[in-house]
């Protein structure tokens, strides 16, 4: 176990952030020492991995915990166990190299394995939860290691049971049973058609490259333009509850969903009201994607939350739709 004091915290929104303590857990053997440290230093605890889905405070007055468990163990032709510190995109490439099918559509999503089940990361018609057999984690409240199977994880759109638990994910077991590719997502279909690609001959690697090209054209790379990806979830609402006093339903992007509710494209909602959001010298919407907030250089956590609240209020007043944030706002 590594303990650092007054440590700086990496985060893709590039907020200059430090924590009182940063602890790195190298393996499960460290958990006894972690318990002792936490009982000697009572207070707030935050689990943080690559920091690509959090808006951090300038100072976190507590203990930040991360892991460096970076093993990938083949169990069978279908099953793989992976440590929480493995980088997600690295793992996608590893799966392609080792003929495990299914997560190539999730290529280039930033962040770690450990965070992937928390919000059930998803993109281009695929969600990680489909391939999770079980999640092994440390429960801070019970001070015990537990394993949840897939149904206990309660995966849903950008959500899982873990969002509301005080846990440290240590390892994920994946089960890959599929062999075919998932091409049935509108932007993938359009790309294939536009580029005259013979989809019957596509392999996993080529599909991953297509996904990467589509992503690069739309999403800013956080190494150059600090951001946390989509800032708001696509809201699920009753279609009759949408206010159409300023715009018509045809102006919106609306998908049917299984629940009887409709899913509304949050990016389009923001595009329609963005001219009414005052300029801010530290933060703005990305030119290619209205769902992405970018740090123009010196944004503080307050700049971000104020700006996000302006957007939320304007969307609510215009459409009677409540937007929900995707990244976690971490209190100081
Ligand atoms: C450019 C860009 C594009 C993105 N595109 C997508 C996308 O297409 N789809 C998508 O779903 N997401 C997307 N994201 C969001 C982000 O990549 C994912 O949420 C990712 O899983 C976060 O990983 P992380 O390691 O950075 O987590 P962090 O930001 O470090 O943490 C995120 C949350 O998970 C918790 N957490 C982290 N690690 C652990 C652990 N080991 N145990 C328990 N809790 C943990 C943290 O406490 C926090 O609440 C994007 C982000 C960016 C910057």
TrEMBL record:
InterPro entries found in the cross-reference section: FAD-bd_PCMH, FAD-bd_PCMH-like_sf, FAD-bd_PCMH_sub1, FAD-bd_PCMH_sub2, MurB, MurB_C, MurB_C_sf, Oxid_FAD_bind_N
Keywords for this protein: Cell cycle, Cell division, Cell shape, Cell wall biogenesis/degradation, Cytoplasm, FAD, Flavoprotein, NADP, Oxidoreductase, Peptidoglycan synthesis
GO terms, molecular function: FAD binding; UDP-N-acetylmuramate dehydrogenase activity
Annotated ranges, domain FAD-binding PCMH-type: 14-221
Pathway: Cell wall biogenesis; peptidoglycan biosynthesis
Protein family according to the UniProt entry: Belongs to the MurB family.
HAMAP family: MurB
Protein name listed in UniProt: UDP-N-acetylenolpyruvoylglucosamine reductase
Organism the protein comes from: SAR86 cluster bacterium
Gene it is expressed from: murB
